[in-house]
Amino acid sequence: MVVVEPSFAPRGESVSEQEHGVRAHSVITGEHRHLASLFDEARAALETDGGGEAAQEALQRLVDSMEAHFQREESLYYPTIWSLRPDLKESLTGLIETHPQFRDRFEAIRGALAAASAAEAGRHFEEFADLFSDHERAEELLLRSLDVDLTASA
Ligand SMILES: [Fe+2]
Ligand SMILES: [Fe+2]
Description:
Layout lengths: L2 E2 L10 E2 H33 L3 H32 L4 H9 L1 H16 L3 H36 L1
Antiparallel strand pairs: 1-2
Helix pairs in contact: 1-2, 1-5, 2-3, 2-4, 4-5
The structure holds fe (ii) ion (2 copies).
């Protein structure tokens, strides 16, 4: 069994390919669940606070966490996975290539808030939330197949 660099493991701990795949899935889906709770908070703040300070702060927390998550996927999680499974590199690169559109959509929400259009900001937010949810589903589907493949080859 191949033992790989433990990018998903605590420092100094070596893990097998199979364990690596399982950890990748649980780490990334755990981050997705955290982002989902920040989406809920931002949605609630937009609904009750319109474009006020609480809504802007909730949106900022969401965008900061989303950006940190993207950075980890782009520079750590996905390169680690495709070093084990080069056949997944194209699919993972395709997922990474969709990240900029979420950054752009966030700017549309901010623009609507700056123009004092809470209703338009709410519409942009729901479009953004739907697209982001599709993106996460696609990622989790791919990661689930990784768990199965690595388990099968162990
Ligand atoms: Fe992603
Ligand atoms: Fe993700």
